[in-house]
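Allow me, if you will, to draw on your knowledge of protein folds for a short while. I have a record of one protein: its chain in single-letter code and its fold written as C-alpha cells. I should value your view on which stretches of the chain appear to form regular backbone elements. Thank you for your consideration; the sequence and its C-alpha cells are set out here:
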Amino acid sequence: MTQWCVNSFQVGGLPLVELNHLELQFLLLNDFRLSVPVEELDAYGTMLVEFYAREVITQQEGIYMHTSAPT
C-alpha cells in the first residue's frame, strides 16, 4: 500500500489493520476478481459496511463486558 493510501485512510479514521481486513473480505467476496460489474460492486460495498458495523458492535460489547462490575 502506498503512503498516500495509508495517509488518506488515517485521515478518514479507519485504522490500517481494519482497512487490510476489509480489503481481504472484499477480495474473498469477489473470488479475487478485479473486474467486477458496478451492481455487484455496490452489493459488496453494502456487505462490507454491514460487516464493519457488526465488528464494531462486537468489539464494543466486549469492552462493555470487561468494564461492567459484577452484580
User: Anything to note?
Assistant: The mean pLDDT is 77.
